Amino acid sequence: MKHIFKKYGDDAKTTLLLLHGTGGTEEDLLPLAAKIDPKANVLSVRGNVLENGMPRFFKRLAEGVFDEADLQLRTKELYDFIREAAANYDFDGENVVAIGYSNGANIAASLLFHYQNALRGAILHHPMVPKRDMELPDLNGKEIFISAGKNDPICPVSESEELQSLLTGAGANVQMCWLDHGHQLTMQEVESAAKWYKDHI
Ligand code: MLT
After folding, report:
1. Looking at ligand 1, which residue's alpha carbon is closest to its atom 8?
2. Which CATH architecture best describes the domain 3-200?
């Protein structure tokens, strides 16, 4: 997968996995990584799917309606890519924390739904429920931060609450950050995520 890898040094324990929103690239979230943990390695990936020229991490049938078969395939592709990158770049594959926005947060949530050891934790900015009616792996010990807009036209409050309850039900420790606006990524939630990261990771 097209990506950027930045090694902090031999002391870095954590690798931040950056996953952009629809129409973004692997450059977009680099400033967030610097704000969250300037001492972490960074693996920033570009989604392999193109929707009218816009990179995404999996196909969708309509806004908010995911192509489940493609989501499953792309989740595995990303999972395998992270494992390969850990071997090639020599970082700890058991200590990867995702930072995803929108479509990138959705594939990060899908990694958590499908693979017990994909992520140690995740910062999910404006995620949705990636898949319903499935059994989640044991997520005990996983630290997850979710920011959600109370007026998000793409992801209603009830869906953010559903995601919180699915992850908590699987054992994850989830912190919600509710915002008074919509789907856009704001400085306010990045600062809350940075504070959460210091306390939990
Ligand atoms: C998605 O398709 O992943 C969500 O609708 C968010 C988006 O990318 O707009």
Report:
1. 103
2. 3-Layer(aba) Sandwich (3.40)
Q: Where are the domains of the chain?
A: 3-200
Environment class of 88 (CB within 10 Å of its CB; exposed 0-12, middle 13-18, buried 19+) = exposed
pLDDT at 166: 98
Q: Active site residue: 102, 110, 147, 160, which one?
A: 102
At residue 11, the pLDDT reads 78
27-41 tens-digit pLDDT: 999 999 999 999 999
The best mutation among 154, 163, 185 to test binding of ligand 1, ranked by most ligand atoms within 8 Å of the C-beta, falls on 154
pTM above 0.90, yes or no: yes
Residue 117 tokens, joined: 């050891």
